[in-house]
Amino acid sequence: MLLDYPDPGYAERYREIFKCAVYFDSGVTEVHYPASYLDFEIPTYDPEVHEVLEAVTATLSQKLSPDIDIVTSIRLAIREKAGTFPSIEVIAQQLNMSSRTLSRQLRTSGTNFQRLLDDARRDVAEDQLLHSQMSIQQIAESCGFRDAQNFSQAFKRWKGMSPSEFRKSCGTTAP
């Protein structure tokens, strides 16, 4: 198993769980296994689930195609690492262009970086408000806000209600 991130300090636990050699900082994430494993029958195989997964795979492949537009590329880059929201400079560098060129292309597409960033933050915030027990402060931090007050103001601008009101309106409770 090759992992693209540094050894977390408990690499031996990985080896125990996966029962194989595990290499960190490899530059890629890969799982290697004998080709003969492909001949094994899967006892829980479900043709309906297989069909759904093929459709999901086709959709993802289309999104990851090199022919995707600039807006989709940026949305994917913004959401690449959970819990982090890269700057326009970082994304421009990933796309091999200047931030000014990226801004110009976004303007041509009828949007801007801040709008795409806000959309991503809003989606994360909504998901966490609905599906976690995280506090408003924790959600604010995970969405890249320095404090809950700034997050609450932004959320109210996005949804027309505070994060707490949103959580209550959806029947979710949290600390």
**Radius of gyration, taken over Cα atoms and rounded to an integer in Å:** 21 Å
Unreliable spans are none
Count of helices? 9
Structural class: mainly alpha
Q: Biggest sheet: strands, sense, closure? A: none
Average pLDDT reading: 87
Overall 3D shape: globular
Instruction: Give the % helix.
Output: 40-55%
Q: What is the CA–CA distance across the termini?
A: 39 Å
Q: Give the SSE order as H and E letters.
A: HHHHHHHHH
Oligomer: single chain
User: Proportion of β residues?
Assistant: under 5%
| Number of distinct beta strands | 0
Would you spell out the secondary-structure blueprint of this structure?
Layout: H1 11-18, H2 47-63, H3 70-78, H4 88-94, H5 99-108, H6 113-131, H7 136-142, H8 148-159, H9 163-169
Helix pairs in contact: 3-6, 4-5, 6-7, 6-9, 7-8
In short, what is this structure?
The protein is an all-alpha fold.
